[in-house]
Amino acid sequence: MTHASTLPAPAAPKPGDGGHGRPARPAHGLPPLAQALALFATARLVGVLVLAGTAWVGGKHPLALLGRSWDSLWYLGIAAHGYGRTQYFRSTVVHSDLAFFPLYPGLIRAVTTLTALSGGAAGLLVAWTAAAVAACGIYAIGARLHGRAVATVLVLLWGLLPHSIVLSLAYTEPVLTAFAAWSLYAVLTGRWLWAGTLAALAGMSRPNGLAVAAAVLAAAACEVWRRRGRVSHRLWTGAALAPVGWGGYVLWVGRREGDPLGGYFEVQRLWGSRFDFGAGSLRFVQHLLTHGDRFVFPMTMVVVAAAVLLYALLIADRAPLPLLVHSGVLLLIALGGSGFFECKPRFLLPAFPLLLPLARALVRTARARPWHAVLVVGALAGLSFSYGAYLVVIAHTPL
């Protein structure tokens, strides 16, 4: 048995929804999941085409931008040569590749070993495949909680976020989101071993993959408390597995650096990244408000502020505990971390549950005033495509 607030029952089928026993097949042929994936793929394809056009106008090569931008170069270096690269700028700024978690470069290495693809092409293949897997997991969660219409819109909105161009780059956010979505779905359906295993893999993808383990542990603790400890061994095993990926890598880096508990965090500090409860972010916001700066930074403030508002709406909607914890931890890391202020919206890409209130509202709007919904989606698409091209081709700021 499971607690209603932790593992909710599936949403009641709507007219035309087809019930939960078997997917409905609309009159035009595509099942709902295929529709959602088609919309997501179309959104990302158009985003890439806009980027490509902008790049060609500027005399740049689109594939080079997609496969070898910023952090992609670090991942490709790890995939090709292993860990060991360090860049020294000054005594307080030292960039080591140990800051980058190993799963994504490991997958790139596997693809280049098994195929004739170059590192950049392999990175894109892994990222694009992971984005599709993530979209399926996001759809599964949306359909379970609120039905297929909301699930489809949820996937579309995730593909139209201002920073969704990152989902088309050789970056780790699609990989993390794929493991996060399916781990959270496993929690919602009571599959604790899968939840823990996928959370461990999420923890090996990125530093903020810790949010997935936190969600699994919170849900497991709630279940243990509710059942007064009389739970299956699968729950205990899943909960034990959840933090293994993140914790294992942090301890490995610490041992390599001569400080098992603090070594990894020293590596991050030398990159300029540390958790200071938002002090660095507040100083940067003060600078923007008093001096002004490039367009990327005010846009970052808007995106983060919107994420805080959406999280409040998610709480008001009484979303399941795992989704609240997952999104809350990601938001806390983004708000409380200093360094690379412009990267904070990217760090929030795996926090897809924040889009649930917006997806539900858009579905209600579509049923009452279809053209209003079309205008909203069109505006989001225009912002996503143009801003994505600006970020990668024009802005010259870390992604």
Describe the structure.
66% of the residues lie in helices and 3% in strands. It has helices at residues 32-57, 62-67, 71-81, 103-114, 119-146, 148-159, 173-188, 192-203, 210-226, 233-241, 244-256, 263-270, 279-291, 296-316, 321-336, 344-347, 356-368, 370-394; strands at 86-90, 93-96, 274-275, 337-338. Helix 17 (356-368) crosses helix 18. The relative contact order is 0.13. Mean pLDDT is 89; it is low at 1-5 and 12-24.
Structural class: mainly alpha
CA gyration radius, whole angstroms: 21 Å
- Beta-strand fraction estimate: under 5%
Give the tally of β-strands: 4
Strand order of the largest sheet: 1-2
Largest sheet composition: 2 strands, antiparallel
